[in-house]
Write a sequence for this structure.
C-alpha cells in the first residue's frame, strides 16, 4: 500500500523559508511511472498545484504565480522529496499536501498525504 | 493557463438522489480530466481519471463523462458518505483545479 506523509514546521515567520518533506512508503520515488507533487489549499479555498519532481529529478513549477520562490528536491536514499518556499507571506498560509502523480498524458494525483497546515505569522 | 469552472457551487440533495456535477474548461483538455472527493478534514481522494475511468476501489455509483471542454461527474444514488466537496482537475501542460462543488444534505 502506497502512503505519503508530510512533515515540517507548522509555523513559519514572514520572509523566512518554508521547508517540508514528504516520506513515501510502498513505492520507490525512482519508479518511472510516477512524478511527485506538492499541492496546497489555502483556508476555505480550492486546490493549487505547486510543482513536481520526476523520477529522474527534473522539476516543474507553477509559473508565474510563485515567481521563482519554490524549489522541489528528492532524496532517493531516503525515498523522500521536499519543498522549499522562500520569502513567505501570510498568503502562503495553507494546508500543504504531497501526492503521487501518474506520469501519463492525463496527469492525476493518487494517493495524497494527509496534509500539513503551515501558518505564516510572526 | 486553462481555467476550470465548476457548477453549481453547492448542490442540496437527499440520500438516494442522483447528483450531477459539471466542470467546464476554458480550452480543450481532450480527456485529461480527473475528479476528486474531499471530506471535511481529509485529503482529496481520486475518484475518476481520464474523464471516465474509475480509480481503484471507487464504487460504481460514481461515473464520469465528457471530453474537450465539458465534463460531468454523476453520483447515481447518494450515500451518506458522499456528502462532501468535489473538485475537477485538468492537465493541459500545467495541472489546475476547479473551485469545487459542495454536495450537502437537503
Amino acid at each position: 500500500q502506497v502512503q505519503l506523509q508530510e512533515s515540517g514546521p507548522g509555523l513559519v515567520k514572514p520572509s523566512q523559508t518554508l521547508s517540508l518533506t514528504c516520506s513515501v512508503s510502498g513505492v520507490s520515488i525512482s519508479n518511472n511511472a510516477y512524478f511527485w507533487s506538492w499541492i496546497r489549499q489555502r483556508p476555505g479555498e480550492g486546490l493549487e498545484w505547486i510543482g513536481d519532481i520526476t523520477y529522474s529529478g527534473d522539476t516543474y513549477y507553477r509559473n508565474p504565480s510563485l515567481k521563482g520562490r519554490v524549489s522541489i528536491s528528492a532524496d532517493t536514499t531516503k525515498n523522500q522529496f521536499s519543498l522549499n518556499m522562500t520569502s513567505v507571506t501570510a498568503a502562503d498560509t495553507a494546508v500543504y499536501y504531497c501526492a503521487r502523480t501518474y506520469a501519463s498524458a492525463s496527469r492525476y494525483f493518487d494517493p495524497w498525504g494527509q496534509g500539513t497546515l503551515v501558518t505564516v505569522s510572526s | 493557463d486553462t481555467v476550470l469552472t465548476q457548477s453549481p457551487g453547492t448542490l442540496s440533495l437527499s440520500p438516494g438522489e442522483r447528483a450531477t456535477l459539471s466542470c467546464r474548461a476554458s480550452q480543450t483538455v481532450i480527456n485529461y480530466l480527473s475528479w476528486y472527493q474531499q471530506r471535511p478534514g481529509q485529503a482529496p481522494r481520486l475518484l475518476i481519471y481520464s474523464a471516465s475511468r474509475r480509480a481503484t476501489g471507487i464504487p460504481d455509483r460514481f461515473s464520469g463523462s465528457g471530453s474537450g471542454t465539458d465534463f460531468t461527474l454523476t453520483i447515481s444514488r447518494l450515500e451518506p458518505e458522499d456528502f462532501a466537496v468535489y473538485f475537477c482537475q485538468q492537465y493541459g501542460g500545467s495541472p489546475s483545479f476547479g473551485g469545487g462543488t459542495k454536495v450537502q444534505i437537503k
About this structure: The longest strand of chain A covers residues 94-102. The interface with chain B takes residues 37, 46-49, 60, 62-63, 97, 102, 105-115 of chain A (CB under 8 Å). The radius of gyration of chain A is 14 Å.
